[in-house]
């Protein structure tokens, strides 16, 4: 009787070990599948992020380039205007000095006449 009980326990132990191994293998298989699925989802997400970043850079990059060109153009125009105004101011100053010099001479001549 004891031998039958021991045999039954040994048989139950073997069945338990077999079931445990099967369950262990199945869990590893499921974990591998889950890991692959997560990796695929992460790769897909990374690709989506790169695509959106490219669209952002492309779309806003053109706008930034246009703004930069606009500012650069107006800066050059303003510098040219500033140069012309400075040149004009110099000419006006020279002309005023000449006129003042002529006026001094005219007044000196008028004083001599008197």
Number of helices: 1
Q: In this structure, how is the largest beta sheet organized?
A: none
Low-pLDDT runs of 5+ residues are none
Q: Order of SSEs, N→C? A: H
**Rounded to an integer, what's the Rg over CA atoms?**
48 Å
Write down the overall mean pLDDT: 88
Q: What amount of the residues lies in strands?
A: under 5%
Helix proportion: over 70%
Number of strands: 0
**Separation of the first and last Cα atoms:** 161 Å
The coarse overall form would be rod-shaped
The secondary-structure class comes to mainly alpha
What are the SSEs and their pairings?
Elements: H1 2-113
Tell me what the structure shows.
The chain is an all-alpha fold and 114 residues long. 98% of the residues lie in helices and 0% in strands. The protein contains 1 helix and no strands. It has one helix spanning 2-113. The chain is rod-shaped and about 160 Å long.
Short description:
The chain has 114 residues and is mostly helical.
Offer a few descriptive terms.
about 110 residues; mainly alpha; 1 helix
